[in-house]
């Protein structure tokens, strides 16, 4: 959720499409809460392709990750209050054949923003610049799985009723918030935006 909060903080966003893929990042994974634990959904990428622009990074085709991800989402959120409302938007993503990681993640991001009725211009970079122009905030690689709650960049977690467990789990995938809170998801994010 820290990532989505970062997007909401600014009127327009440049999405980095030319950086090199970074392992151990959110670029190909998200976290969801299941009945027994927090689980990582990881999209497999082709081996030996980690030193190329993220836009050109191909997905591994030898695994049935899409079926696994969709079944995991159904098991984790099938009984969540807003799953039936949003599931028809997400289901086609897991039925389509994807070649590139960037295209998949861009589609999921677009669906999430549309579901929350958040209109943010998303512009893709055409080349990689190591430094950004003066006056722009460089958020590349700031939001990462290793960040602890006290080091979230854009978002201070606000508790909301989740599908499983008594204890609130912060910074899960935005789909946790969508499936559990529906239209109130934006209000939860806005309440947690850091100044």
Q: What's the topology here?
A:
Blueprint (H helix, E strand, L loop, with lengths): L1 H8 L3 E3 L13 E5 L4 E5 L22 H13 L5 H8 L10 H15 L6 E3 L49 H8 L3 H8 L3
Give descriptors for this structure.
195 residues; two-stranded antiparallel sheet; two-stranded parallel ribbon; globular; 6 helices; alpha+beta
Query: What is the average of the pLDDT values?
Result: 85
Query: Structural class of the secondary structure composition?
Result: alpha+beta
**DSSP strand content:** 5-15%
Say what oligomer this is: single chain
Tally of discrete structural domains: 1
The helix content, as a percent range, equals: 25-40%
Gap between N and C termini: 16 Å
Poorly predicted tracts of residues: none
Q: How do the helices and strands follow one another from N- to C-terminus?
A: HEEEHHHEHH
Q: Mind describing the biggest β-sheet?
A: 2 strands, parallel
* Helical stretch tally: 6
What strand order characterises the main sheet?
Answer: 1-4
Number of strands: 4
What's the short version?
The protein is α+β, with helices and mostly antiparallel strands and 195 residues long. The protein has one domain (2-192). The protein has helices at 2-9, 65-77, 83-90, 101-115, 174-181, 185-192, and strands at 13-15, 29-33, 38-42, 122-124.
What does this structure look like?
The protein has helices spanning 2-9, 65-77, 83-90, 101-115, 174-181, 185-192; strands spanning 13-15, 29-33, 38-42, 122-124. Helices cover 31% and strands 8% of the residues. With 195 residues, the protein is α+β, with helices and mostly antiparallel strands. It has one domain (2-192). It has six helices and four strands. The radius of gyration is 16 Å and the shape is globular. The strands form two sheets. It has a two-stranded parallel ribbon with strand order 1-4. It has a two-stranded antiparallel sheet with strand order 2-3.
């Amino acid at each position: 959720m820290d990532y989505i909060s970062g997007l909401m903080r600014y009127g327009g966003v440049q999405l980095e499409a030319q950086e090199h893929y970074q392992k151990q990042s959110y670029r190909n994974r998200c976290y969801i809460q299941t009945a027994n634990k927090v689980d990582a959904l990881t999209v497999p990428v082709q081996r030996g392709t980690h030193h190329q622009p993220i836009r050109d990074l191909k997905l591994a085709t030898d695994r049935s990750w899409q079926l696994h991800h969709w079944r995991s989402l159904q098991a984790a959120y099938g009984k969540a209050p807003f799953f039936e409302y949003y599931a028809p938007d997400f289901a086609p993503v897991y039925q389509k054949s994807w070649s590139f990681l960037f295209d998949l993640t861009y589609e999921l991001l677009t669906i999430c923003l549309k579901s929350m009725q958040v209109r943010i211009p998303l512009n893709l970079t055409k080349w990689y610049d190591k430094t950004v122009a003066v006056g722009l905030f460089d958020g590349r690689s700031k939001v990462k799985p290793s960040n602890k709650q006290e080091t979230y960049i854009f978002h201070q977690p606000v508790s909301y009723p989740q599908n499983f467990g008594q204890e609130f789990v912060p910074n899960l995938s935005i789909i946790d918030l969508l499936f559990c809170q529906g239209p109130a998801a934006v209000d939860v994010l806005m309440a947690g935006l850091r100044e």
